[in-house]
Amino acid sequence: MLGAESAAEKEELATYDEVLHNKSLEYIDIDLDDRVKVNYAKFEGLVGKI
């Protein structure tokens, strides 16, 4: 049986997996001229804040 910490980690990973799956189905256009902050915003929920 999973401990409380392991269950919480499993839930966090499942949530992240769902966000990652949904983003992978999108066509995300990035433009290097837009700089990092603009392009990072397009991957909200997948990358850490800068």
Q: Report the portion of residues in β strands.
A: under 5%
Major β-sheet annotation: none
Strand elements, count: 0
**Sequence stretches where pLDDT stays below 50 over 5 or more residues:** none
Order of helices and strands: HH
Molecular shape: elongated
Task: Tell me the Rg in angstroms.
Answer: 15 Å
| Average pLDDT level | 88
What's the N-to-C terminus distance? Answer: 37 Å
Q: Helix amount, in percent?
A: 55-70%
Q: Helix count?
A: 2
Class by SSE composition: mainly alpha
Topology of this structure?
Elements: H1 4-24, H2 35-41
Characterization of this structure:
It is a single chain. The protein has two helices and no strands. The longest helix has 21 residues, at 4-24. The protein is mainly α. It is elongated and about 45 Å long. Helix content is 56%, strand content 0%.
